[in-house]
Amino acid sequence: MVIILSFIFTFLIAILHSWEELEIEGKTKHGWARCLPTKRINNKLTQFLVGKELTMYHIYMMIRIFCFYHFIFIYIPWSIQSEALILSCISFYFVIEDISWFVCNPHYRLKNFNKKSISWHRRWFFGLPLSYIGGIIIGTLLLILAKIFD
User: Fold this and answer.
1) Which residues make beta-bridge pairs with 128?
2) Residue 81 burial by CB count (10 A; 0-12/13-18/19+): exposed, middle or buried?
3) Which residues of the chain have pLDDT under 50?
4) Between 80-104 and 2-25, two packed helices, what is the crossing angle to 10 degrees?
5) What does the radius of gyration of the chain's CA atoms come to, in whole angstroms?
């Protein structure tokens, strides 16, 4: 039951975050903080890890989400099972949040969710950004790990 509730919570928070990002970035075709005044980091490491530049906007957002999910350890003891479940939720969170941004953005929706229309997702596989596939695989493996330690 904890796993189901964790993923319902993750889904809801990810959707809310995508709406927040649409308000911050504007409901335009320019994603990945293209029009925001934020520092951009583009080097061999960012290209290897994410295939694109990283912005400080996104780095702070990722740190905030990581801290938000780990807040629970103030109240419960840390365990491999709970850490694996949290990391799994975070992995799925970023996939859900990102795809929700496109679905909710009037310039994209699902009809324009493709490599041709989305320049900042440079690596695609089977019609999805490679980062989504990696996030789903990592999230699933972490979920399996959480169940092993259950």
Assistant:
1) 125
2) middle
3) none
4) 40
5) 16
Tell me the C-alpha to C-alpha distance, in Å, between residue 36 and each of 79, 91, 103.
Answer: 39, 25, 21
Domain boundaries, the chain: 2-148
The C-alpha angle 122, 128, 91, rounded to 5 degrees, equals 95
For helices 56-70 and 80-104, the axis angle rounded to 10 degrees is: 140
Average pLDDT, the chain: 89
Give yes or no for a contact between 41 and 55, defined as CB atoms under 8 angstroms apart.
yes
Long-range Cβ contacts of 70-79 (<8 Å, 24+ apart):
79/149
Which residues have a Cβ under 8 Å from the Cβ of 60 and sit 6 or more positions away?
Answer: none
User: For 50-79, what is each residue's pLDDT tens digit?
Assistant: 777 888 988 999 999 999 999 999 999 999
Count of residues for the chain?
150
